[in-house]
Every structure is written in structure tokens, then in C-alpha cells.
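Handoff note, outgoing to incoming analyst
You'll be picking up this chain. Sequence as last confirmed:
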Amino acid sequence: MNIIVNSIFVQDQEKALAFYTEKLGFVKKVDVPVGKHRWLTLVSPDDLEGTELLLEPDEHPAAKDYQRKIFADGIPATMFGVSDLEKEYSRLLEKGVEFTIKPTKAGEVTLAVFNDTCGNLIQIIQR
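Most recent structure output, in case you need it:
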């Protein structure tokens, strides 16, 4: 069994698409209309056949509540791995990404957390 798609709730799919592609560097893989929304997935440019990230609308009341509560508590919605956290942190700062936690050593990993501007905190880690 493999993980093929992981979803993240977003407030606005178009805004999320711009942030995740232009700022983070992900690549759009699937963009199919589904009612008033889209099945919109992204992949890493380093693994075009890898796990897809679904930018899922947060319209369901439970999704909105979940998203707001974990954000308010400072809990990241998901985590992305990087090979050089300091380099990625600097690159994202230059692109205007707002960090809530600067690079921090936590046991065997170094981590940082940023605001994706779409209702989520995202953690990046280097193992």
C-alpha cells in the first residue's frame, strides 16, 4: 500500500495554487473541474510521479472548524522535508513567506514553520 494523495484544506484554491507553485516551487499535476471547485493536486518538482498534495476547499463546516482550531493552536497542517533547511528558509524569506517558527533544532531534526496564507501552518524539516 502506498500514499498517493494527501489533502490539505485551503480557503481559496486559486490563491493556494499561486502560493504553493510560485513561492514553494511545487508543480501542478491535476486540475479538473468538480462542481464549483477543482480536483487540484501538486507534486514535488523532484518527484513528478510521487505523492500528490490535494488543495481541498475548506467549505465543509467541520473542515473550517478544524483548520481554524489547529491554526490558532500553532499546529502545522502538514510537513514537508527539505535537504537544507537554512537554505530553504532563506529562499522562502526572500519570496516573502512569513515564518512563525524560525529554524529550530528539535532532537534529530531541524524544523521551521510558516503561514501558507490559505489558513494553514506548514512545517518544514531537515532530518
